[in-house]
Amino acid sequence: MHHHLSHTPKLPSPCIACLLIIPALGQSAWGQEAENWRFKLTPSVYATAGQPSATDVNLRANQDAHAVWVGQYQQNGVGEQTRVGYEYTASTAWGQIVPSLQAATGGFAGGSVNLQIGHQNYAIVGWGRTNVRNYYNLNFDPNDAITLGAGGWWSPQHQWSVFRVQDDRLHTGQKITHLVWHYHPTHNERLTLDLAQKQGRADTDSPTVQGHSLTAGWDWSDYFVRAAIDQKVNFSPYDQKRLSLGLRF
Predict the structure, then answer these.
(1) For residues 200 and 8, is the Cβ–Cβ distance under 8 A?
(2) What is the H or E stretch that residue 235 is in?
(3) Where are the domains of the chain?
(4) Which end of the chain has less neighbouring CB within 10 Å, N or C?
(5) What is residue 23's DSSP assignment?
(6) CA of residue 126 relative to chain centroid, distance
(7) CA distance 245 to 218
């Protein structure tokens, strides 16, 4: 779950160093050369009704089964946060298992593990835990939660999934159900639609809210764009619009 920052955390030097470490991984980590790494840069703008606007810049690097990222979130007059993370994708005969670790300024730490059981048609299972500190990232689902769902390919061009992310720790009743469709008209193009329904409380003392969200994305070659309309963002009283532009290199 995303928590509203009540202060501006000091940016520690290890997080600044991560901006320099990621390119260096291409030369030193696991004995790989720099050309084996692929990068994705995602700058985003968030416009929330009744609140100052916010920006987020995320840089992700992938090499084989490994992924690392660093991100910077800033909301005018509210605060900022720098985050880092690592993810490993292990492919098996029965599907995939993806553990990840995250950390951020302000003392946040968290982790998750997600499973895809099956290939052409598959089950989705996930579990996440944090130390319940303030955290902003590109995911607007609860973080202390379980995930259950299913997905598959009904043709080489069409992929679908239905899954629910539900709080199983903080007694907020938060649950978000996603219906996602990916359409691949060519090898280098992809349309994504994500329709979601949510219900729950920001915390145990807040009223229950309900809302919907719609995210649309278009990927072509090394570029992509995402736009979202999100009612009751983070189970707050506010609606939010988001726009992300991206570059892979």
Answers:
(1) no
(2) none
(3) 13-248
(4) C
(5) H
(6) 14
(7) 10
Report how far Cα 202 is from the mean position of its chain's Cα atoms: 19
Looking up tokens 């090499």, which residue turns up? 63
Residue 34 DSSP label? G
CATH code given to domain 13-248: 2.40.160.40
Nearest one of 163, 114, 171, 165 to 142, comparing CA atoms: 165
- What's 170's DSSP letter? S
- Output the six-digit token pair for 28: 């030193």
Which pair of tokens denotes residue 27? 């030369």
Question: Rounded CA gap, 108 and 118, in Å?
Answer: 33
Task: Please report, to the nearest 10 degrees, the dihedral formed by the alpha carbons of residues 23, 73, 215, 159 taken in order.
Answer: 30
pLDDT along the chain (249 residues), means of 10: 37 39 45 72 96 96 97 94 98 97 97 97 98 89 97 97 97 97 96 98 95 98 98 96 97
Q: How many Å apart are CA 49 and CA 231, to the nearest integer? A: 10
Q: Where are the beta strands (DSSP E) in 184-239?
A: 189-200, 209-220, 223-230
Residue 54 · residue 43 · CB < 8 Å? no
- What pLDDT, on the 0 to 100 scale, is given for residue 35? 56
Measured distance CA(16)–CA(141) in Å, rounded: 27
Written as six digits, the tokens of 183 are: 């359409």
Closest of 220, 12, 244 to residue 140, by C-alpha: 244
In eight-state DSSP terms, residue 35 is G
CA distances from 53 to 6, 73, 118, 241 (A): 15, 11, 41, 10
